[in-house]
From TrEMBL:
Belongs to the YjdM family. NCBIfam families: phnA (TIGR00686). It comes from the Bacteria. Residues 46-114 form the Protein YjdM C-terminal domain. PANTHER family: PROTEIN YJDM, PROTEIN YJDM-RELATED. InterPro entries: YjdM, YjdM_C, YjdM_N. This is Alkylphosphonate utilization protein. It comes from Staphylococcus succinus. Residues 4-33 form the Protein YjdM N-terminal domain.
Length: 117
């Protein structure tokens, strides 16, 4: 008998899989504990493109050119961003940071890789 896995609570995808004691959604990269109930206030783990866990204050590097919405500015691939702040995802943007020459922006963790400080 095959056990049915729960749908992703974030995007409702049915393609979840188990990784140790976590469920993982390959569609939105959401991870949650297989034995956690909904009242658990455990913080979501935010990871970079390589699967490295990100924390407040980390330095990251942008992995591809990004157009800044509403301007003609571009954040170039290889731009190093220091002292990131992790936030509740809004439109997929889960990192707040300041970039020289551009200002305060939100980035997606899937478009950065962790770098040394």
């Amino acid at each position: 008998m095959e056990a049915t896995l729960p749908n992703c609570p974030k995007c409702e995808s049915e393609y979840t899989y188990e990784d140790g004691n976590l469920y993982v959604c390959p569609m939105c990269n959401h991870e949650w504990s297989s034995n956690a109930d909904e009242s658990n206030t455990e913080e979501e783990i935010i990871k970079d493109v390589n699967g490295q866990e990100l924390n407040d204050g980390d330095a990251v590097t942008v992995i591809k050119d990004l157009k800044v919405k509403g301007t003609s500015s571009v954040i170039k691939q290889g731009t190093k961003v220091k002292s990131i702040r992790l936030v509740e995802p809004e439109d997929g943007h889960d990192i707040d940071c300041k970039i020289a020459g551009i200002g305060q922006v939100g980035l997606k963790s899937s478009l950065v890789k962790k770098s040394s400080k």
